[in-house]
Each structure stands twice: as structure tokens, then as C-alpha cells.
Amino acid sequence: MKKAIYRTLGLAILVAGGWYGYRYYKQMPERLNLIPTAKVQRGDVVIRAYSRGELRAVRTVTLTAPNLFGTVQVTDLAPMGSLGKEKDLIVEYDDSERQSALEEDRLSVQSVDEQIKKAKADLAITQSQDAVTLLKTRYNVRRAELDVQRNPIIAEIDAKKNVLTLEQQKRALLELESDIKSRQAQADSQLAVLQEQRNRSLIDVQRELQRIALCKTLAPITGVVATKQNRAGHFNFGEQMPDIREGDTLQPGMPVADILDLSEVEVWAKVGELDRANLKEGQDATLQLDAIPDKRFNGKIKAMSGTATSDVFSGDPSKKFDVIFSVDMPQLLAGVGMKPADIARIMATAEANAKKGINAGVNPFAPPPPEVTADDQSGGGGQRGAGGGGGRRNQGGGAAGGATPTGRGAAGADTQGRGGRGGFGNMSDEDRKKMTDLRQKMQAASPAEREKLQKELTDLMTKAGVTMGQGRGSGGGQGRGGRGGPGDMAGVADPIAAMLRRGITVGGFTDDDRKNAKLPLPPEQDSQVQVLLRPGLLADVEIQVEKLPDVIHVPAQAVFQKNGQFLVYVHGKNGKFEPRPVQLVKQSESMMVISSGVQPGEIVAMADPTASKKNGEKKAPGAGAMGGMGGGK
User: Fold this and answer.
1) What are the C-alpha distances in Å from 226 to residues 62, 199, 362, 463?
2) pLDDT along the chain (633 residues), means of 10
3) Same structural domain, 104 and 245
4) Among 48, 94, 121, 321, which residue has the fewest nearby CB atoms (within 10 Å)?
């Protein structure tokens, strides 16, 4: 009997233990599936937008590799991070090929000059021979005329011979005069061809001088040198492209280095869609650099993008808007420990760079303007005294054409205004008309008369203040005046030497600037205070959007959007969460202001409690909430 009782008691204990074990097992998921909650609060709410950005220079100049019509090889390069002052040498390229081409063009000019001398000597000999032959033929005509005067006293047959002889001598004189004119015209055309070849060779010389000038790239503003990566080679995905170094061979137009003007910086950041709707240009912001965590700096919203973009490599697939913040530079410079004298000097540098118009008035979110090449900066050469045409695009129509009896400098073409006239300078219309008449007379005049007309023409040009081959035109419109071709430099003893004395101006820099340019000091040897600020420094940005007094608010993660309405899940007395629709007054990435639907003190869920489980895995807390969107902090 006792055995039965013990067995029954043991069985009851086992059943009770199994039951309680089952109940404990059923309760385990509920204990583990904890839902974060928050309390509904009432009070003053300051809606703030938070973001994170990096420092960038306001003004940046990109230096590109020139088109040298040959190998573009770097021979000297400014050190990375060095402070380059205006007119400092940043990049120098190998000019040996261009020097060789320049020597060939010089030899070509000298060869054409020798051909012109030979042609003129041959022409002088031919003219002398023609003059002797012409004088002899005229003597024969005069002798035949005298013989004809004897006809009344001589035999009729002899008289007839004299008449025939006179006609023959006159025809010979006409033929000789026609042949002389033909030979003169032929000689003039040959000289004109040689003169055109000479002008073309001079243009080639000037073009090579311009290409040699492009072999030195100088800094247009004062700033930090940032060397670009060499993208000329073939690299596989994932490989690190090296920076451009001395000895590298580049492609024309490739970016080589950036000049970053760190005397004025700005912060580039990204904000979410909800914060973007609350922001506007001119709003105040507070900036805090990671490098200076104990100080906060003032700033303002400078510009905002109109479209959102995403960066798949950043780990955040959400699209965000770019926002640019200006920084209070004196406060920032004082915060990094600069003295008032250094701050004044840096602000003076910023003002000087701003006057150059670099990146001024340009929308930072618009595509960059097309690059300006050497051909755009300089005008083409003229022919037979015509001044060179001005540069294309907006570079101006300056001309440096030669003032010769055969032409005048052409006006440069410029989209911003009319170019200057080369050659004749400020010569009056009456003097120009006289010069045109003299040129026309010279074409049909004899050698003796031509020399006389040439002297009158020279006197007229001297009176007008114009010298042969040295007339200069002014820059056209608002663009820079480009140099034209050499024109007809027949009056210059050594046109190449004249070009070298006149110099080549490319990119606003003269030959003296390029000759005196030196590389900036390396960062470790320079003590400039501007380099204390580096582009790429990270900063936290806080923008106070609006202040709402005495309102009900909850975290953004507690509001969910389902079936076209906003819901919150309120914790009831039975321990369950009940959905309740609410009305929103204001919303941001981190805070929701509610007008009705909940009361202060109630507990709301910050994750969807109705989220279904799949394959034993719980849905991430906050999934489906409005606070799940990126941009919050």
C-alpha cells in the first residue's frame, strides 16, 4: 500500500515539475523579447538638426598638365602640403623636345631669310640687266626714228626699210617692257611667298616659345599644395593609385595639383530629408572640430543642394542633401592659437585672393566650367602685317601685330567685348587713307618711284607714332589680351630676338616671373601658421531650427506610419501595447511634436511590438519607425 502511495506521490511530483517547466519555457521568449520604451513628455522643445562634415577650402585652383605636343614629363614638383605663395613654382615639365623644335624653327626662319636675300639679289641683277636692255632698245627705237626722218632724201626702198625697222624696234620695245613687268610681278610673287613662309616660321617660333612658357606652372594664389593621383596608368579595381611624382609622364589636361586657399574655409556636410525641409540659407549653426573638442565656433548656412545623393561606399544607403556652412574665420584662427598679427595677415591674404575672382559667384553644386587651354589664352598670328586674332572664349582679343605697309592688325574676337586693334594704334582716318593710296601707287610704280613712295610711307608712319613690326593692340573687352602673331617684321633686324625681348605672357605670368619662380619650402622646413588648418578635418554641426514652447513630444523612433496615418503604441494597464493614432505638429530626424493622441506621462514603445517573427529571428527594434531613417543623431 505504501509503495502505491509513494509511486503516486512521485508521479504527481514529476507531473507538477513538467507543468511548471512547460510554463517557464513558454514565458522565456516574453522575457527575452524586451521592447524599448519612452515616456511622453510635455515642455519646451528646441528642434535641432545635427550633421557631420569636413573642412574644405573656399577657393581652390586646379593646375592641369599642358599640351606640349610631345612628352609631358614632370621634372620638378612642389612638396605635398607645402605652402605655395603667389608666383611660386608648383610644377615644371621637361622642355628639351620643345627647345629642339624651337631651334629647328629658328633655323627655318634663318633659311627663309637667306632665300629672301638671294631672291632680292637675283631681282636686283635682273632689274639691272633689264634696265640696260631697255635703254639699248630705246636707243635702237630712237635711231630708227632718226633714220625714218631721212626718208625724203633717200631711195624709196631704203625708206621702206627704215619704216619696217622702226616698227620692229617699237614692237621689240613693247615686248621688252611687257617682259620686264612680267618678271617684276613674278619676282614680287616669289618674294611674297617667301615672306609668307617667313611669317609662318615666325609664328611657329612664337608658338614654341609659348609651349616652353607652359613648361613652368606657377601658383596663381597663395595656398597649400595638394598633389593629385597619377591616373595615367592602368590600375585594377582596389589598387591604390600613387601620387604624381617627379619623373612621371602625364597626359595633357590631367589634374596635377590643387592650390587650396586655407585663409578661408567652409564645412561641407549632409543632412536628411526631414532636416533639409527645416533648413534655409543664413541660419546660424555651431561647429565643433574633432581636433579642438573643447571649443565651439560660429557658422551660417551658406548654400544647400536641391537634390539628394547617396554614397554606397559610406555604409549608409540613404540619400542625403549637401549643405555648406561658412565659418567665422577670426574666431577659428584664434581658436587654433594664432596671434592677432597672424590673423590679420591671413585675413589680408583671403581678401587678396577673393579679389582675383577665383570661385567667386559660382554655384558649388553646378558643373565646373570648361578648362582653359593655352590656345584659348593666346591669339593666332597674323599674315603680312595683320595683327594676331584674340583668344577664343572669354580670354580677350589682344593683338600684337606688326604695322606694315601691307596690312594692319586685326581686331581680336572676344565674347565679352571688342578686341583691340594691333599695328596702326591711334592713326587718324586721313593718315590711313594716305597710307592706302601710297600702297596702291607702290604696286604699279617703278623701282625708283617705289623707293620714293616707301620713304613717304615711312615718314607718315613715323609721324603717326607707329614703327614697323612693333605695333601693339589692347586687350579686348573684359577678357585678357592675348598676343597675336608677329605680323610682317621685315623692318626688324632680328625678329626672334625682338620676340625674346618682348617676352611671352601665359596665364598672366611674364618671362621674369617664370625665371624668378622657386619651389616652396617643404612643410617640415616652413613655419607658416596657415598650415595649422588642414582640409579634411572633421566637425560636428548643430543647427537650432526652431523653439516650440509647452508642447507634447516623443522621440522620433516612437512614431510609426501605417496605412497612411501616424501611430504610437501606448503601454496599457494590462501590460500590452495598444496602437493609437496621433497628429504631428513638427517633425525632425530625432524629435516628434504631437498635438493630440497621447497624454504626458504615458509610456510608448520605441519599436513595433506587432512585428512578426520569421524563422525564430526577431525583427530589429525600431524597424518601420520614422526614426529609422538616416540623418538622426
Assistant:
1) 9, 42, 22, 55
2) 77 82 65 74 84 87 90 91 88 93 92 92 92 93 91 89 92 93 92 92 90 91 87 69 88 90 86 82 89 88 86 73 90 83 84 74 53 42 37 38 37 37 53 76 70 76 51 37 43 66 77 88 65 76 85 89 88 84 83 87 87 46 42 35
3) no
4) 121
Residues 130 and 142 in one domain: yes
Structural domain count, the chain: 4
Phi, psi angle pair for 3, to nearest 5°: -60, -40
DSSP letter (8 states) at residue 243: B
CA distance 343 to 321: 33
Q: Is the full-model pTM beyond 0.85?
A: no
Beta bridge partners of 530: none
Compute how many other C-beta atoms are within 10 angstroms of the C-beta atom of residue 578. 12
Rounded to 5°, the CA angle 227-84-508 comes to 100
Cell of 29: 521568449
Domain boundary among 214, 239, 262: 214
Give the SS3 label for residue 43: strand
What's the CA gap between 30 and 19, in Å, rounded?
18
CA atoms within 13 A on the CB side of 326: 13
Which neighbouring-strand residues pair with 571? 577
3-class SS at 205?
A: helix
**At 384, is the secondary structure helix, strand, or coil?**
coil
Extract the C-alpha cell encoding 383: 599674315
